[in-house]
Fold these 3 entries.
Entry 1:
Amino acid sequence: MDLTGEGNVFGLDESQQPTLQDMHDRLDDPTIYNGVRDKGGMVVLATYRCPKPVIGAINGAAVGIGATMTLPFDVRIACDKTRIGFVFGKLGIVPEATSGWFLPRIVGLSQALEWVYTAEILTPHAALAAGLVRSVVPADDLLDTAYDLAHRFTQNRSPVATALARQMMYRNCGLAEPLEAHRIDSLAMFYTSKGEGKEGVQAFLDKRDPNFAARVSRDMPPFYPWW
C-alpha cells in the first residue's frame, strides 16, 4: 500500500483539527476518509469482518504495518528468516492498524507495551515464545505448512458454522459478561442445529464425510450480523 502526501497532509489542510467526534459522526465523509483515517486500519477492519479463516505465512521482514496488519489473522506462521518489529517509537509515531486492540489480546498487555516501547526487531523464536506466531518452520516449508493448516480448517467443515464461530470468538471475548455471549451462542446453535448440524450428526452416525451444502453468501442465519 502506497500513501503519498503532497502539499497539505493527505488532502487535509494543516489548519484543520479533526476531533474524536468527527471520527464518530463523519467517519466516511471524504475529508475524514481520505485525510485522517489510517488506511492500514481499514485493511485490518476488513480482515476482522472476513467470514473465512485467515492464516498468515510471514516470510522475511514484517516491520511496522507489515507487523500490525497480521494481527487480525487467526494464525500466524513464521519461518527462520522472519523478523517482526513494532518500531513506531523509533519514528516518533504510534502503533496503527488497530494494533492497540489486537496486540494486547494476543500476547498480553505487558508484552505488547514492552515491544512498542523498545521498538526492537524480534526474532521468530521470540515471537513464538510470546504466542504471536503459532510455529517457526524452515523457509522452504512455510507455504506448505500454511496450506496444510488451511486444509485442516476447511475440509469437511461447514462454511456457515466456521464463519459464525470466527465472529463469535472475536466479538464475544470483548463482551462485558458471559450472559451477553450466551445470547449469541444460543441463536447460533439454534440455527446451525436446524441446518448443517443435521447433516453433520447424520454423517457421524453413518461414518461418512459430511456434505455441507450451505454457503456464507446465501445461507447465514437471519440474526447475522448481530453487531
Entry 2:
Amino acid sequence: MAVQLWWFVQATLFAWSPQVFYGWRRFLLRLFGAEIEKGVLIRPTVTVTYPWKVKIGDFSWIGDDVVLYSLGEIIIEDNVVIFQKSYICTASHDYTKPNFPIFAKQIFIESES
C-alpha cells in the first residue's frame, strides 16, 4: 500500500511542484522514509522507486530526469551532484539461473574530498 501511495504522491504533488519548491520535495521524500539532509536540491522530474531506501547528504543536488531505482539502498554523501538524466540502478537479474531472479545491492556515492 505504501508503494502505491508513494507512486501517486510522486506523480502528482512531487512532480507538479514548481522548480524552486526544494523544501516541499524534501518534505515529501522524508515523509516516505528517505533520509534527506540540509540544503539538498531535488528537481521535480526526479523519480525515486522506494524513498525509504535513499539517503542524501548535505548540500547534494539531484538533477532533472534522474532516476534513483532504489530496490537496494542508495547512499549519496555530502556535496554530490547527480547530473541530469542519470540512472542509478541498484538491481539486476541473475542471468546464470533459469528463473532469472532479481537481486539488489547498495550503491554508495562518495564526496570528492
Entry 3:
Amino acid sequence: MSNAVILLSGGLDSATTLAIARDQGHRTFALTVDYGQRHAAEIRAAERVARAAGVTEHRTITVDLRGLGGSALTDAIYVPKDRDETQMAAEIPVTYVPARNTVMLALALGYAEVRDAEDIYVGVNAVDYSGYPDCRPEFIAAFQAMAAVATKAGVESRPVRIHAPLIHLTKEQILREGLARGVDYGLTHSCYDPDAAGRACGRCDSCQIRLSAFARIGMADPAPYQTC
C-alpha cells in the first residue's frame, strides 16, 4: 500500500477526492491549510471529514495569506451573493485567493517527501463556475513539471504524481462519485460567508453551485444553512 497526501479543505470536492484516494488503495495523509480564510468553519469540517474517512494522519498548517489580501476570503471585501450562472462565469470572482493553490500544493509536496508519499491528490475542478486560474488542467500540468525538478524525489527519478480526479467532472458527477463511496456530505462545508455558528449562507457562489447540484440529483443538501 503506497502513501498519498490529500489536500483536504473540508469542502465537498476535497472530501470526494479523499474518498477516491482511499478507494484506490492508498494509505491516506490529509493536509489542511489554515490560510486565514474568513470561512474558518471549513477547518472544523476538514477535521470531521478526516476522522470519518479514517486517515492515517491529518495535519493542519497555518500560512496566513491575509498578509497579502486581495480576496474576499482573506480581506475586508464583500462576498458576492445571489448571482446567476452568467454572472458567475463572466470573470474571475473576488473570492479568488492569489497563489492559494500554488502555496497549498507546495506544502503538500513537502509533506509528501516527509511521508515518502508517491502521490498527491487535490480536488480542483475546472467545470463549475468559479473560473479560478489555479483550478485548470494547465496549472496542474505545470505544477507536476515543477515538482519533478524541485524535490529530492524528483531528482532521484521518483517524482511525486499530482492527481486531480475531479478536474473534468460536473458538480453532480462529483456528488455521485462521493455518494457511491459513502461520503457524508453533511460533514462538509463549502460556504464563503458562513455565520458565527458555521451555517452556510445559501447565497454565495459556492453555496448556489452546491445547492443546484444537489437539486439536480434529487437530494437535499444535508449541510446546515441559514436560509435553506
